[in-house]
Amino acid sequence: AGRRLRYRMLSKCRNFRGERERRGYQLAVTRRKEEEPSSSSIYNLNDPWTPTLDFTDFINNETIAGQDLVAGVTAGFLHIPHAEDIPNTVTVANSVGFFLRPYNFFDQDPSINSADSIYFREDQDPGACDVNPLACLSEAAACAPDLPAFSHGGFFHN
């Protein structure tokens, strides 16, 4: 049982001109230590070649089995401007990040215990009230508004 860390990144991170800061590592997992409350500093942006707080000092090949852990995750991307950025840059697909998800930590999906969750098997009738209590709610109890059908008149160009 453990955790899975999954990246949503567009490019690999690289060191630049001897840079020793966090950007050189996409992921670094270390033991948690009370005397290491932070692995970066707001002042590191000013001089990445001689950082105020050097992240590489935290990486010392200690065993991590059975320990409280800290994951140093670098998330970033490079945007190269192009003609479609004028007058504004589209940001819909320009995102990076990571997911920290359980991995064989639970016996089943923990969301099954959420309010109003329903679980039924193939041989059960999803319309039966004893199997699916939400199927027997009155229409007034449903919170979804009654919206008219969507229609689109097209685009008009002069």
Automatic annotation (TrEMBL):
MF terms (GO), sorted A to Z: copper ion binding; primary methylamine oxidase activity; quinone binding
Tell me which cofactor or cofactors this protein depends on. Answer: Ca(2+); Cu cation
Maturation and modification: Topaquinone (TPQ) is generated by copper-dependent autoxidation of a specific tyrosyl residue.
**Cofactor: how bound:** Contains 1 topaquinone per subunit.
Give UniProt keywords alphabetically.
Calcium, Copper, Disulfide bond, Glycoprotein, Metal-binding, Oxidoreductase, TPQ
Q: Name one GO biological process term.
A: amine metabolic process
Which parts of the sequence belong to the Copper amine oxidase catalytic domain? 25-112
Domain of life of the organism encoding this protein: Eukaryota
Q: Which residues form the signal peptide?
A: none
| PANTHER family, per database record | COPPER AMINE OXIDASE, MEMBRANE PRIMARY AMINE OXIDASE
Family named by the database record: Belongs to the copper/topaquinone oxidase family.
Name-wise, this protein is: Amine oxidase
Can you name the source organism? Sus scrofa
